[in-house]
Amino acid sequence: MAKEPEKQTGGLLPSGFGPVLRRIREEKGLTQKRVGDTAGVHPNTVAKMERSEIEPSWPMVLALAQALGVDCTAFNAAPADEQPAAEEKPAPKKKGGKK
């Protein structure tokens, strides 16, 4: 019998796909049912993906992107308020020493 893959982080997958899927769906004003029907999956499957309980296959990512009206790269983009801050350069050192 095939061994089931171990769950990570208490049953949640670490990819970050789920929260992005939820954010895009909510921004578009769509329900899980509407996205699921358009993408060809059960709304419960959409819910599980949003909770990071399951990962979508590549064909499912494409179907979800089409159902949401976005490019598949949208799932990699973090919203502006989650973008990493620009790295600050250290202040230049003053020349000369203590006298």
Describe the structure.
The chain contains four helices and no strands. The radius of gyration is 21 Å and the shape is elongated. 16% of the residues are buried. With 99 residues, it is mainly alpha-helical. Helix 2 packs across helix 3 (43-50). It has a domain at 17-72: 434 Repressor (Amino-terminal Domain) (Orthogonal Bundle). The protein is 38% helix and 0% strand. It has helices at 17-27, 32-39, 43-50, 58-68.
What's the overall geometry? elongated
Rg (CA only): 21 Å
Let me know the number of strands.
0
Low-confidence stretches: 1-10
Oligomer: single chain
**Class of secondary structure makeup:** mainly alpha
SS field, number of helical segments: 4
Pfam families: HTH_31
GO molecular function: DNA binding; DNA-binding transcription factor activity
Domain HTH cro/C1-type: 21-75
Region (Disordered): 1-20, 77-99
Secondary structure layout plus pairing:
Blueprint: H1 17-27, H2 32-39, H3 43-50, H4 58-68
Helix pairs in contact: 2-3, 2-4
GO molecular function: DNA binding; DNA-binding transcription factor activity
InterPro entries: Cro/C1-type_HTH (IPR001387), Lambda_DNA-bd_dom_sf (IPR010982), TransReg_Diox_bact_type (IPR050807)
Organism: Frigoriglobus tundricola
